[in-house]
Amino acid sequence: MAEFEGLDKLTRQLEEASRACQSLGGELARITVVPGDRASVQAAIQQVEAMIDQKAKCFEGNELVESIVRQIKKRYRAELIRRGRVPDVEL
What we know:
Layout: H1 2-24, H2 38-56, H3 63-84
Helix pairs in contact: 1-3, 2-3
């Protein structure tokens, strides 16, 4: 019986992970970053992370979703930092 409970838990986690991924997609395009302005980049990171946390809140306790959320935050953070860099200018 314990094997079926474990399988049920895994199935639930996978279904929730799928719903969480669908819910979390596409938010980065709406965030504005001013290149070269660290405060702008930091504010954008905080805004994205707050949106992600809000959308993922209903999946609290699901280790799979929590892992996905950490990875998504990491990727968005890296992308926002990339967007906020000032391109090298040759003189």
